[in-house]
Amino acid sequence: MLDPDALPRDPRIAAALGPVRAAVHEARGRGLGHRVLVAVSGGRDSLVALGLLLILARSEALELCVGHVDHGLRPDSRDEAEHVARIAAALDLPCRAARLELERGRGLPARARAARRAALAGQAEAWSASAIVLAHTATDQAETMLMHMFRGAGLDGLAAMRTWEPPYLRPILSLTRAQTTELCAVLELPYVDDPTNLDLDAERVWLRERVFARVRTAHPQFERRALGLAREAGEADAALLIWAGREVDARAREQRGSWSLEGFEQLPRAIRTRALRLMCEQCGVEIAQLRRRVVEAMDAAAIASVGSPPPGPRGWDLHPKRRIVIDKNGLHTAPA
Fold first, then answer.
1. How big is the chain by its Cα radius of gyration, in Å?
2. Which of 6, 33, 155, 220 could form an S-S bond across to 130 if both were Cys, CB 3.0 to 4.6 Å?
3. Does the predicted TM-score (pTM) go above 0.70?
């Protein structure tokens, strides 16, 4: 079992600790406190995240608590919960566990994810933790990017997961799954394999086992390159969002839910579409439900509204009892 005070001399440990320390420092500068809850399933990724943070706990002034969620969907899940509890005890760490009673059926993955995060949030609150550590890896990042791309996501979808998205901290996002497998052996962390991770009917598993296995043969560094692309996409998206936010603020009228679109056509399209999304959000529209084709239609109407003579108003019912209208006077809301 891992002993933070008697680590083996292995360069793989030092190579992994650097990015984890950098992730902690990044989050520490943006609100991370000393107490963190580490979500541990018992698998290799979460155990490596726990082990590396435990090694850094003294130098980074971290207090760790193990959190485990049993979905109650498999007969052996109780054994896995007990396995996690034993590891926490061996590492002299407090452990909080929750058992869910989910019913199989439609939307199970999404329901399980939401229930797991709610349970972890409750454990974090009980522990007074400032963050919940999730053990997503560079392999998970590449999978998420492709899945977002398949669904037609834009730049924000390519950005996928961030290292620090309060309350979630992903300290091993720069490590591949191959690395976590090696580190489990080096750090003497006994892990268990969830059989659902071999279910090829799951899109993520199919990508990992069928697509990535072949891509990795020709491009061994593709996961790291995907990680770099995600980081650049996230930075670009954040910069565009800042610019778009300033445009929205500058164009806002005293009447709530009303903006001028004068000179809007002179802005880059990426700024216009983000500004329109922000305007809709401030009108109460749920951004997750705002389709790309709708935003593109709104952008076309916004540009056309400066013509001479301007076309008739265009409207979209995007919020209960409210309508988003674009006409010669700009963008504003009206009763549906």
1. 24
2. 33
3. yes
Same domain as 276, residue 210:
no
Contact 46, 135 (CB under 8 A): yes
Token pair in block for residue 155 = 């730049």
Buried b (16+ CB within 10 A) or exposed e, 31-65: ebeeebbbbbbbbbbbbbbbbbbbbbbeeeebbbb
What CA–CA distance (Å, rounded) separates 207 from 218? 16
- What is the bridge-based pairing of β-strands 168-169 and 131-133? parallel
Q: What is the pLDDT of residue 100?
A: 86
Q: What is the pLDDT of residues 166-184, one digit of tens each?
A: 999 999 999 999 999 999 9
For residues 94 and 122, is the Cβ–Cβ distance under 8 A? no
Which structural domain range is residue 260 located in? 252-335
Pull the structure tokens for residue 114.
């939401």
Within 10 Å of residue 97's Cβ, how many Cβ atoms? 17
- Same domain? 206 vs 283: no
Task: Tell me how far apart the alpha carbons of residues 336 and 323 are, in angstroms, rounded to a whole number.
Answer: 5
Structure-block tokens of residue 235: 């930075």
